[in-house]
Amino acid sequence: MDQPSKQSLDNINRRKLLARTAAVAATVAAGSAFAGEHKHHHHASTANTDLISSALDCVKTGEACDAHCIKLVKHGDDSIAECLDIVNQMLPVCRTLSTLASAESNHLVAFAEVCIAVLKDCEKECEVHADMHAECKACMEACTACIKECNKLTA
Q1: Other Cβ atoms within 10 Å of 123 Cβ, number
Q2: What pLDDT, in 10s, does the model give residues 33-63?
Q3: What is the CATH number of domain 65-154?
């Protein structure tokens, strides 16, 4: 019987490696999905629920505002460039705010104070465009609500 060539052995080994990698990836994905579905509700905290919701609303409306501003800038409307810049500063701040609030971080109050400053900048800039662009108006309103939630925490 003929012995397999080195090239055919390499191909077989690559296929085995790919198959094993796919199996590991599927196992990890299934485990993550399982973990996401089976939360320990008896340990869940609702201490910062409103703040988390408000921060995530800022992210949602901010992403819509960001996308709208990008389209306008691409079509030559530079009047919205500052709004785009400030929204892009607000987005990571609100994502982090949500994460720290969820974790009930010891640094949450200090971070909320920083967030208030960033949110006020975004609120002010979006207000300039709120009458012309629904996305800016929604982002402005979300920032206003999140500022209120942050103020409750820092008061």
Answers
A1: 22
A2: 444 444 444 445 568 999 999 999 999 999 9
A3: 1.20.1270.360
